[in-house]
Amino acid sequence: MTAEPATAAHIDPLFSPLRLGSLELAHRVVMAPLTRLRSAQPGNVPTPLNAEYYRQRASRGGLIISEATQILPEAQGYPRAPGIHSAEQIDGWRLVTKAVHEEGGLIALQLWHVGRISHPSLQPGGVLPVAPSAVRPAGRAFTPSFERVEFETPRALERSELPGLISAYARAAENAMAAGFDAVEIHAANGYLLDQFLRAGPNVRTDDYGGSIDNRVRLTVEVATAVAAAVGAERTGIRFSPFGRLEDTDDPLPLFGYVIGAVSRLGLAYVHLVEPREEGLSGEDAARFAGRRAGEFFRDVCRAPIIAAGGYTGPDARAAIAAEHADAIAFGRAFISSPDLPKRLRRGIEPAAWDASTFYNGAERGYTDYPEAT
């Protein structure tokens, strides 16, 4: 990874300013949301250790998107994941936002409901997780002790429960503002609840939230509308993973072209897109999407700035911005191992190697003990 020095004739695309709604970024290196499962206090409350982790990764004028954070107790799918639904959690997050702001950084909270990607042992009262429909997911769930067990078939949400769910997203966004966040990001990606509603595989409803594309996108648009009304569209982003598959054969382009166009018309601060990853593509998808950028497919319908995520290097990121396939780039694992990643990218220094065995759970090791570049 090399970087040329910026001159009047050659401005580094990664280090030019960018406005995302109400956020004024000094550069376009964004820290992606990274689940780390280290909210060790009872009640899934962020701790001083979490504050130190985020402080280390803050950069002046740079944006951090927090780890996914459950909006309700029943939104939880992983042990030791933080929430934003209690007074104690709000106070815990204030430690984080204060630390980031003291370093001159900006931080958005990612609002999360896992839906069916949970287990009764993580649910209040031991009840079944909820989902659009009673369709059991593939794979294995976590328990509070980090044991992996088979998923159970979830309970389909009643039509009458959806207004309360929408209100919970808005209330969580208001809690985020009370905790000092600069913005919120709605998690509508990676197989969690809103993504489940979008997809024909896990959503086999026969009411006005299932069936046609315009029905399946309805909940996501209503959540985005409610959150934007609660905290301001200029402080609201949303994340999608168009090229993932959830037991369905939907063509992602019509589905996500529709929903991205609909939410971006709300005046959101940004739309965050996960790129098609070659290892996750097969058959016709591989032929259509491998080696392509999400922005190539959705830039024309998206009225908001685009943050792109998906294994970028410095040269890849600069090329994507220069080609207008993205306006900013979210880096994930490289930020885990290189808390000073913006500095490294500016200077052409490779990210440090990460230890995947310490990504989840644990304490300081693999979390706050990565050194900065010399």
Overall residue-averaged pLDDT value: 94
Helix coverage percent of residues?
25-40%
Strand content: 15-25%
The structural domain count equals 1
Q: Based on Cα principal axes, name the global outline.
A: globular
CATH architectural arrangement: Alpha-Beta Barrel
Task: Give a short account of the largest sheet.
Answer: 8 strands, parallel, barrel
The total count of strands amounts to 14
Notes on the structure:
By secondary structure, the protein is of the alpha/beta class. The chain has a single domain (13-358), classed as TIM Barrel (Alpha-Beta Barrel). Helix content is 30%, strand content 15%. The chain is built from 12 helices and 14 strands. It has helices at residues 48-57, 87-102, 162-178, 193-198, 213-216, 218-231, 252-264, 283-289, 294-298, 314-322, 333-337, 341-347; strands at residues 18-20, 23-25, 29-31, 63-70, 106-112, 130-131, 140-142, 148-150, 155-156, 183-187, 236-240, 270-274, 306-309, 328-331. An 8-stranded parallel beta barrel has the order 3-4-5-10-11-12-13-14, surrounded by 5 helices. 51% of the residues are buried.
Quick overview:
30% of the residues lie in helices and 15% in strands. It has 12 helices and 14 strands. Strands 3-4-5-10-11-12-13-14 form an 8-stranded parallel barrel, surrounded by 5 helices. A two-stranded antiparallel ribbon has the order 1-2.
Can you tag this structure with a few keywords?
single chain, 374 residues, alpha/beta, TIM Barrel, 8-stranded parallel barrel, two-stranded antiparallel ribbon, 12 helices, globular, disordered N terminus
